[in-house]
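In the previous lecture we treated proteins in isolation. Real proteins rarely work alone, and many bind small molecules. This record shows how such a complex is specified: first the sequence, then the SMILES for NAP.
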Amino acid sequence: MGFKTSLLLYGTAWKGDKTAHLTETAILSGFTCVDTANYPTAYDEQRTGDGIAAALASGTKRSDLFIQSKFTPVWAHAKDKIPFNPHQSIEGQIVESVQQSLEHLQVDYLDSLLLHVPFEDDNDNLIAWRVLETFVPHRIRSLGVSNFSLSQLRELYACARIKPTIVQNRFYKETRYDFDVREFCAEHGITYQAYWMLRHNPEIMASSVLSTVAVKLSVEKELAFYILILGLGGTQVLNGTTDQGRMVQDLKTVGEVFGNEARLRELQPDIDEFRRLLAKLST
Ligand SMILES: NC(=O)c1ccc[n+]([C@@H]2O[C@H](COP(=O)([O-])OP(=O)(O)OC[C@H]3O[C@@H](n4cnc5c(N)ncnc54)[C@H](OP(=O)(O)O)[C@@H]3O)[C@@H](O)[C@H]2O)c1
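The predicted 3D structure, ligand included, written as tokens:
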């Protein structure tokens, strides 16, 4: 992970007209990474840009931020919310969408751009990737994918000239916690960004290892879950809290645990127990 990335990214989805305020609050509370998408169904990228601009106006440096957005293929958009002209080539769609992201976010480069979901035809993933590669490094510093299976990731990775450095996926039982994807990421130096976990993992939320860690750290179980995912290594966590107290507490605890080797060593048995729990729930 680069110098300006941190273990937590602020997730801006589903925040509507509070997006700008919450994005600004998150950055001023200490988040350096912001995740958005040119996908109006779930994100307000323009308001994310307004929040970033407000934080920059308060003294945050652009070079201290990691700003990540996404290109979403036509099929995944709500029909009445496609932000670019869908009646053009994939190349044209991507060029228009990336330009819009830069304008919405009021920046002249993105730190990361993800292919939000695979195309309906996997062959189009590589066509899209070739276009995305043309933006690197001047307009986009690094590329990644989201909602990709291992076989889709493997195929793209093999053909990519500029390799993906980020995979952003749902961390839950249905994908067996992405054991195979995370293994591939570890082998290839790819950062695995987890989302979806807090509201879609009832067994883990009810597990004793989560309670143990929550008690040890005197934090909510949700934050204990983040800590355990980060403890797996090679991971980042998408955190979309709307509560400033949680923003501050989450950043503080993650900093204290992962900035202190002794503290992390103390948690190692719990992290090992968490790995065993994931394996058990996956069978
Ligand atoms: N690539 C994709 O397809 C995709 C899809 C969905 C989401 N995402 C990204 O992932 C981000 C996160 O989305 P998500 O669906 O995983 O969930 P989320 O938006 O982070 O929701 C977390 C929920 O848990 C609650 N919570 C309780 N304790 C918390 C704590 N200590 N810290 C943080 N939240 C706590 C929050 O409530 P409060 O607000 O009351 O704190 C919130 O309701 C999105 O904003 C987006 O950037 C990506």
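Summary for your notes: Residues 261-282 form the longest helix (22 residues). The CA atoms of residues 179 and 279 lie 9 Å apart.
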